[in-house]
Design goal:
Structural class: mainly alpha
Number of helices: 5
Strand order of the largest sheet: 1-2
Shape: rod-shaped
CATH architecture of one domain: Orthogonal Bundle
Oligomer: single chain
Distance between the termini: 75 Å
Amino acid sequence: MSRYSGGQVSSLAKKLRVYEIAKELNLSNKEALDLCLALGIDVKSHSSSVEEAHADRVRRRAQREGIGIYGSEAESTPSEPEEAVADPPVTAPSEPPVEHVEAKPQEDEDKRDLAAVIAQESAKREEAERVAIANAGKLAREATEQQAATRPKPAPVSPSGQPVPPPPARKPQPLTSF
């Protein structure tokens, strides 16, 4: 998508709503919202907008975790109805179960992706600063040269310290024809 404004054509990144991503991935709005938050994307509700790049990260995460449209077929379309199994008796556990979470490779990949984007932006900023500094130096030199050229030259001084009078003006020669 591009927008024409003031003689320039600028490219605008496409934005998607969280609920659109959820619909695309066959997830609930809450699941899509939780995926965004897990990836560090700043969203507040299913109506929040995200950049296309963030939406791609959510899609890759859903694929890696096998959820939504990327889930196993056994989960999404059961081939035979399952037999009813009696629920085991419910007893209150003495301690809540502790979930052991290990660093997942996909989180490391997301961090590397984010680090690469940050590094690129940082390099662009540094290059812009170098160009600005070079331009400022060039402008300062030009201004100094211009001031020196317009500054009147001091009157010549004789060895005795007295100012030297200007040379006599030349009389214009009459034009002669041939």
